[in-house]
Amino acid sequence: MFRKLRLKSFTLIEMLLSMVIAGVLSFVFFGILTDVYKDYFDSKEISSALSDMELALMKIEANLKNRIKNSTSVLKITSSEIESEKLENDFNKSGYTGIEFLKEDVCVKRGMWKEEINNTSFGYSGLIDLNLTEKNGSVYKVFLPFSDFESVKEIASKRAEFWGLEKEIFEKNHEVIVFSGKKGEGDIDEIKIFKIKKVAFNDITQNDILEIEALTHGKERIYEKFFLVNGAWALVFEEGNLSFYFNYYPWLGEKFKDGNKTLLIHNLSFFDFYVKNGVIVFNMCKKVLDKTVCRKKAVF
Fold first, then answer.
1. Residue segments in the chain with a per-residue pLDDT below the cut of 70
2. Domain membership flag for residue 290
3. How many domains does the chain have?
4. Which domain holds residue 138?
């Protein structure tokens, strides 16, 4: 009447076979998981390197966009000397690892807020009224419409103090006037640098009046358009590191290593640049794990 139940169980062979299959599946899954993790890690490292290069190129563009174009020269740097050559509209030579340029001081051009007038004062317009210009020996007296050089001096002096430099920016010839040709884009030989000897204000014309004198040699000539410049800038590639040098004054005999330095990016495996029709194209590469990743940017 009662049926006897027989319970089945795994045999030893079945258990061993199950363990082998589980081990194979675990090995395959672990391999896939390792590859996924490695790809994720590699992708993260590559993305970080590309972002670093993109940020460095953006900083280069931001500083070069206000350069006085015909003041730009290229640098070939060795352990014993620094060679400088004018940067032509078309340039593609090897061995040059730096660019040096003068940059318009746009910080002081914007002016500053003044409580007494409850408004922003002028900085400087960048224009001279040539009809009112007077010359006495080597000194020019120039009239500047829509400019407030007291504000210019205050802004530039506070900036100099921040960097630990001397606040007498006009007296020390740290803030100078630069003429760069008739249209502001002449030949490098047309770059003329003038020191500011005196600042005054004409109540009748409501213009600032400057007395300026040439710091550079050669034929003196002033133009309607000028730039205020606070030191030179140099972009230099050294031992895998790309840096900006600033707050140095070539017209006082200083070189870029006399200035302040800020690192843009480190551990580059490659950096160069070339110029086509006046546009500077920068290339940089970085080694990440077993790959080399690169970025390129054109600066007008």
1. 1-10, 12, 14-15, 25, 27-41, 115, 117-118, 182-190, 202-206, 218
2. no
3. 1
4. 103-230
